[in-house]
Design a protein that fits this description.
It is built from 3 helices and no strands. With 64 residues, it is an all-alpha fold. It is flat and about 40 Å long.
Length: 64
């Protein structure tokens, strides 16, 4: 889809990065998230996301 957009609108596209990444929930997702070399796919699970939300709310409340 991104490639088609870049070809159709070259004046609006400076750069395009093409990546191949697994889609969460579609096999072999469970095996991928258990691979230590691919730690970044499971980074930011529910615990970390909750922490970021709490931290951003604290910053907003304290410093606003």
């Amino acid at each position: 889809m991104a490639y088609a957009y870049a070809v159709r609108y070259p004046d609006k596209t400076d750069r395009l990065v093409m990546m191949d990444a697994p889609v969460p929930g579609i096999p072999p997702w469970d095996e991928i998230v258990r691979m230590p070399a691919l730690w970044h796919f499971s980074f930011g699970g529910p615990m970390l996301n909750g922490w970021w939300l709490a931290a951003s709310a604290y910053i907003w409340i304290v410093f606003e």
